Amino acid sequence: MKLTILGSGTSQGIPVIACNCPVCRSNNMHDKRLRSSAMLDIHGKKIIIDAGPDFRYQMLRSKVQNIRAILLTHGHKDHIGGLDDVRAFNWVQQGAVDVYGNEGTREVVYKDFSYAFAAYRYPGVPEIDYHIIDDQPFYIDDIRVVPIPVLHYKMPVLGFRIGNFAYITDAKTIPTSSLERLEGVECLVINALRKEIHLSHFNLEEALAVIAQIQPKRAFLTHIGHQMGLSQEVSKELPAHVKMAYDTLEVEIPDL
Known about the structure:
With 256 residues, the protein is of the alpha/beta class. 20% of the residues lie in helices and 28% in strands.
C-alpha cells in the first residue's frame, strides 16, 4: 500500500489569497499546500480520500489514470468541491465513480451537485454512485475500510482506517470508541491546524497528544494553516517519528 498526500492545507490552502505573511511568501515547496486530500494505492486500486476544490489539479499532478473509489470525510466545500471533475474518470472508466460517505455528507453532495442526480441529466454531467455508510466497517472489493467517527466541533466527521493506515482530518474530539479502532495503527495522518487553540480543529499540541496516545510508528500532520509557521521551523519541534505532511509526499505502508 502506498500513500500519497495530494493536499495538506486547510480550507484556504497556502498561500492564502492576499496574505503576505512569511509562510505565504515562502519559496519552500513544503509551504505550498493545496486543500487536504490523500490517495491510497492498494495493489493497483486507487482510493481517494476527499475531493476538494483542487481535485482536478491533484489528479493531473499525480498522473492518476483511474480511481476505484472516493471516501468523503464530511461535506465541507474544501473536501467535496471538486467532485464535478470525476467526469474525466467516468469517460475513461466508462461508468460511475463509487463515492462513500455518511448521510449528512450525502445531503450536501446531492444539494451542491443536484444536476448529477436529477431525473433528467444533461449529457456529460458527473456520474456518481453514492454509497451511504455509517460507523460500521465495509468493503471496497476485497479492501476492508473501518470508519473512525470524530467530531469537528459538533459536526460528525469520518476518519478511515485501512490495514495499518489511518487518516483523520478536521477533528477536535476523538471518542473513546474511535480511539479503540486506532489501536495498532502503524501510520497515522492527522490534522493539526496551527499552534493556537481552535474551536473545531486540533492544534499542534493536541494532535501530538493524540499521536502519543495512539503510538503509531509514523505520524504525519495535515490540514495545516499558514498560522502554523514555516514548515522547516515547525519540523524542528516535532518528535522524530512525527513529520509535517507536504503535497506529493509518498509513503510506503506494509500490508498487515
